């Protein structure tokens, strides 16, 4: 059983909810110390100045727990912190065990004082498990925040921080899917990836009736330490403002900021390889990049036969994200997984990030339980000891971004032509939502008769480029054929033009033989 299986089934639906109930008497450690965010930055700097120490792991029987056994360990909802204080949010602790074998320290921040939370087995229901109970042990693996985003009076799961530097969230009416991480290092490199972890969390007590929760975290890894602050605002879309400062122990050349992790098993382009009753299986289907010059790049995800790494020039990138543009039940036909309810995630850098690229890593996979998609922004600069990196960004978890003002890529389909050496591509565009062009066109009228598809391929011949209105969607369909004779890989680009101006998102695709 791997991490992906747990997220799909064990982590459960974010639509699950508990009614607010009376919290237990304070079980936090009575000792405390003054708190301010600057001290976490100082701790990260001091940590980076010392040799790296591997985190301790919980031993058996907790590490030996199977998937179902671990699922039996549930935080008691009546013990949720702040649930009876009318503060809007409730905080729950997550138990160590199964694949979550690295304990974390948890602190509450109240009235400017940080108070460590001590482990107490009475906080949890253990189901059929017979486990040793040792109050005071380090057996927390993460935290969960609840907030009523779906039904007034019910506390829905809105954010979870657990495992490495992973965290995830949802918007209104959604279920968990795509995840984010604090940092990525050497993703896709032959020597293997380095996985930073959050060692400690500090959660500030929300004010009465709060709409925002604040979580601080201390990150550590063999070559870097860092301080993170998350301001979390649940809602129709859940927003997170993230502030991070990194200190290197050793030089890092392949650094991934704001990394996103998702699953893509198959869609229409891979359908023949998967004898499945469903039409598609994925948490995300598109990488979208908003370039500084106003161009929006859309890259449908793929499940390749070999590892694929792609880079998209993104100096001072305005935003990027992994999106789930397929949002209808009929796109999937899966009653249990509810892939149409998986959130899209969007990264919006603050204050400009300078020179760099958005990298996409696509890993071959034959199971929907494996996260096989990674996207992040890679700075051109090398992170070196003595030269800290401070950066900030906003995360949006919710519906797909539709703010480009350009015709949007709605769907990609394809297959072989009668000439088996030719691959057919069919790309459907729809008009931007609630946006008029300078000429006053909107909706189905967004596409004038003079629109032309512009297609480019890095290898292979392009033929039969055709564009025409799609009466069924009120949009526009462009299609073309790629002659793949003698070609192993071809980078494809398609955009709609009117009077030589690009009026659509730019569709990119990597065809591999």
From TrEMBL:
Pfam families: MdoG
Subcellular location(s) of the protein: Periplasm
Molecular functions (GO terms): carbohydrate binding; catalytic activity
Gene Ontology biological process terms from the UniProt entry: beta-glucan biosynthetic process
Domain Glucan biosynthesis periplasmic MdoG C-terminal: 35-511
Protein's pathway: Glycan metabolism; osmoregulated periplasmic glucan (OPG) biosynthesis
Keyword terms of this UniProt record: Periplasm, Signal
Gene3D superfamilies xref list: 2.70.98.10, Immunoglobulins
SUPFAM superfamilies (UniProt xref): E set domains, Galactose mutarotase-like
GO cellular component entries: outer membrane-bounded periplasmic space
InterPro entries reported in the protein's UniProt record: Gal_mutarotase_sf_dom, GH-type_carb-bd, Glucan_biosyn_MdoG/MdoD, Glucan_biosyn_MdoG_C, Ig-like_fold, Ig_E-set, TAT_signal
Family from the record: Belongs to the OpgD/OpgG family.
Protein name: Glucans biosynthesis protein G
